[in-house]
Amino acid sequence: MAMIDRGGARGQPPEGEPGGKPDFRELIARPDVRRWILRVAFAAVIGMLFAIVFDPRIGLTAAVVAVIVDTVRRARAGDGGYRASPAERKTAKQLSGLTKKGWHILHARAIPRDDDGVSDGQIDHLVIGPTGVFAIDSESWDKRLPVRTLSHMRLFHGPFEKKDRLDEARWEANQASRLLSLAMGQEIPVQPSVAIYGPSVPWRVMTVRNVDVYSGGKARTYLRKRPKVLTDEEVAGIAAAAAKVFPSKFD
């Protein structure tokens, strides 16, 4: 089985792992951290508006209420009420035929935290097969805006840079790799990828910031055309571990 290159210097712990140098970019890429940043920013705006119109104390109260309401709303939405997006359903339908050929597809899987809780992060599709392990993020974008890349480092949808989507996809795959490696007792590489629906994607597969990007309609081809790196026994073992490690959002 292929081994992960953690990228750390010899004799030094890699970045982002215990004892290593904290990576602020990886922290910001965490979906739970990103949602709290947006939540706090939204509450601050609400608080300032109420403080200007009414009173600073009313503004503070409004900000606190905004945080509480948003937190409760998200908690209720995630409590057994998860629904797959149209893009996720398209990818799921496309990949369903692979199960008859020995592939294992886990949809909408939550990412556990080290404190035994569950983060806000989600792997849309965790795929285990002969060509490896993949974390696929299904995205639906406005078809009127073009998709382009710059030097394999920047991804754009029209005038909008999609660095946050690449960072999140890479974070999800890194977490999947870390947790599966712990469960299996050996390094399990997980390749991040983004399947785009809506606009035309002018390439088959483009690797941008270590994330594979392609048209959603080619997800199945993307998986099958890669070199085989896992035996049937390894695929079954990793799939069994993944089913235990990553809880389903549908439960």
Automatic annotation (TrEMBL):
Start and end residues of each NERD domain = 83-203
Record's keyword terms, sorted: Membrane, Transmembrane, Transmembrane helix
In terms of superkingdom, the source organism counts as Bacteria
Which InterPro entries does the annotation name? Answer: NERD (IPR011528)
User: Has keyword Membrane?
Assistant: yes
Name the Pfam families for this protein.
NERD
Q: Where is this region: Disordered?
A: 1-24
Q: Which residue ranges does UniProt annotate as crossing the membrane?
A: 36-54
This one is known as NERD domain-containing protein
